[in-house]
Amino acid sequence: MPVGPEETRSMLPETQHRLIALMVAMSEGDQAAVFPFVETFGADIARMIRHQLRGYGRLDLVRDDDEIAGLVHTAAFAILDRAGSWDPAGAPPWVWAANAIRASVIVEIGHARVDLDDEHFTHEPVAADTSGGHLDLVELASNDPRFRLFREAVAVATSQRDGDVAEQYLIQQALGDPSPSHTVASEFGLSAANVRQIVCRVRRRIRRLQADDDRYRDLGQSGWLAA
What we know:
The chain is mainly α. It is built from 13 helices and no strands. 65% of the residues lie in helices and 0% in strands.
C-alpha cells in the first residue's frame, strides 16, 4: 500500500486537480464537498479500510459492502476535519490521515478482533447500567445537550425504528458492550448484520444533515455520533 506522495503524483492531472479542489473546499468549511470527494475517491479509501479490517481479523466487515460504504464516509469525515493541514505535494489524504482514519474506524466498529458468525456467536448481554436497570433516555437528554442534539438529528434524518436501533447500539457501545450489534439484534428481533447496516445508514444520514444544517455541525465532535 503506498505510503508517500507517489500515489498523488501518479494521478492523472485532471484527477489531481479534482482532489485539490475538493480538499480546498473542505478546508474552507464546505462540508458538502465530502460527498463528491467520496464519489471520486471512495474506492481508494475503501481499499485502505479493507486492508485495515483484515489486519483486525474483521473479515465479516470486509465482505459487507454496506459496512464498507459507511466506513468510507467515516474516513472521509475524518479527512474533512483535517483538510486545512493537508499538503498537495505530499501523500494523498487517505494516506496522510491514516492514523486519524484508523482511529475513527476502530471507534465505529468496536474492538472485536475475530470473524464473528451471526448464527453461532453466543453473547451475554451487557446490563444497561451498573445497577442492572435501564438508562432513562429522556433524563439523559435533559442532562446532556450533545445527546439531546443527537436525538433531534436522528428524529429528523431517519425513521423511528432505525433511530431507536442506532440509539440503543450507541448506548451499548458507550457502556462497553464488546458486541453491541448482537445485544441490540436480540432486543429488536433483527440479525446483528442488520443492526450494523442500520447504524451505518443512520450515521450517513446524520452526516448529510450536518452538511445541510449548521445546527448539527457540533455533532462531528460528539461522542454520541462517533461512539
